[in-house]
Every structure is written in C-alpha cells, then in structure tokens.
Amino acid sequence: MKRIRWGILSTGRIAHQFAQDLLHVENAELVCVAARSGDAANEFAKQYSIPRAHCGYDALFADPAVDAVYVATPHTLHLAHSTAALEAGKAVLCEKPLTTCAADAEALIAVAKRTNGYLMEGMWTYFLPAVQVAQRWVAEGRIGRIRHVKADFGYPLLPFDAKRREYDSTLAGGCLLEMGIYPIAFAWLFLKQDPASIQVVARHAPNGVEDDVSMLFDYADCTATPCTATLGTSFRAKLRNWAYIIGDEGYIAIPDFWRARECMLYRLDERIDHFDDGRRTLGFEYEARAVGADLMQGKRESEIVPWEASLRFQDHIERIRARF
C-alpha cells in the first residue's frame, strides 16, 4: 500500500499527540520533523524514530521526501507556514484554527486553489467515530427534528499569565480560538446554517483577551424548525465539555465531545442506544488517515472539513467578537 510521507512542523504538545497517533495510520509514514531549535527537532525525531530532523522550517518545505505537512505552530503562524508549504508543493493539514481571521482564511484558500494544493483544517473532532455515529443517528431521524444543540469546552488556565501562549495577545490568545472553535464547529456540523442572530456574554483577562464566553445562536429557520445552539468556552473554569443534539423525539449526548470516544441516544430518560469506539489512541489517526485517502484519490479538498466549513468557523467567531 502506498504511504503518504508526513513532515511535522513544530515540536509542541499537539505535535507530540499527532506523532503518537500517526504511528497507527497504515497509509502514513512519519519521515521528517522541523523546529526552530535543532536540539528540539533532534530530540523529537529520536523519540518517534523519525529519520530526518531539520533546524528551521524552510528545510522541511524544501525536503523532497515529504508529501504532506502537519502545521502545528501557534495560530498566528498558520497562514505563513501553510502558504509556504503549499507553495513548495506539499499537502497541508493545518491545526485548528486554520487562521486567526476570515480574511486570512480566504487568502490561504486562494493559495490552495492557485497552487492546486491540498489544504484542510485539522478539525479532528469531525472524524471521530462517535461523532460520525451521532450524525448517522440524526440522519436516520432517531431524534426527530433538531431543536437545540448544546456544547461547551473549557479548562482553567490559571493563574493568568500574559506571557503564556493561550493568553498572549500577540499570538492571537483568548479562549475563542483556542477552545471555543470546537463548540462553534460542532454547531455547524449538525446545523449547517449561519445563525440569524448571536447573543454573547464575554469576560476578559487583565490584558484584554477573552477568557470566558457564553454564546446563544438563534437559527430562525433551521430545517423548517427554529432552533438554537447554546455554546460556551472558558479559561476560568472546567466546563462540562459535553455536547447534546436535542430533537423533538429524543436526544444524543456526547461526553468530552471534542475528543469523543462514545455517544448515547436517549428517548426521554431512557438510554436506547450506545456507541463506544474502544480506541486506545488519542484519536488524531482518523483525520490523518482521511487526509492520506484524499491524497491517494487525487482530491484537493476534504469532504468532511471542506474550505467552506473553515470559512464559516471564522465568520462566526468574528460575529461573536463584534458583540464583546
């Protein structure tokens, strides 16, 4: 079987998680890692038995042995690094958020179109089996018409430290791009509509970045039945981190939906179905395997996380920010 040869950009926490799970992908081979520090790249390569380590990102872009690049650098570098990789003829899986604003997302997609390159935002939640089973249950009509979507994602990042990446305003810090994009993307996945209106209650850290946000999306005409999405994100507290798709005939509950391992189907108070994927991995292998399959089929865009979805995420975030 042909394998896609991967290179990883950066050696941070998310890069480690992706590298661990890539070892379980039959259509993938991890051949290269790059970091600003040669020592960091070498240590990462040693840990995962990667044959080549580069000091500096340009060397990875120029490496002829790399087919696809996983961009795991901070948010503010996604546009530049993904652009450079596309210009070098590499396929790009860019960690979420794709960019830090809608205009940059449009610009990056334009680069993908111009270079005829593959580009996908790493919204790995969309590929998790439990989330896809929940989609199937909805499509089968098992909860009736959707009336509510509820999702939140928050962990306390305390005490506040303006130099910490998640809070750093120069690195697009704040809970919306870091965590809030998950519930926003979840609502889009199940409703596939822009909200008619958005209400927001936001709190801010001492340096001005948002650190706690509650959102109410009102869909005036959603599949012929008005519905709402109640979403939240926070650096101030551990939230429930579950998601619910609630219909007029039942509801689906997904614990820790952003990294979902299971989903449950309820009719009133009775659980009538349950799915557990039984995996021993973190779950990044599903999106990596899907990217590999896309590339082998000559696709330039994911059907599961298409460019339009990434544009909608950014647009909704900008509408939320406008209400701070």
UniProtKB/TrEMBL annotation:
Gene Ontology terms for molecular function: nucleotide binding; oxidoreductase activity
A Pfam match: GFO_IDH_MocA
Residues of the GFO/IDH/MocA-like oxidoreductase domain: 132-252
Gfo/Idh/MocA-like oxidoreductase N-terminal domain sequence ranges: 4-121
Alphabetical UniProt keywords: Oxidoreductase
Family statement: Belongs to the Gfo/Idh/MocA family.
Protein name: Putative dehydrogenase
Species of the source: Povalibacter uvarum
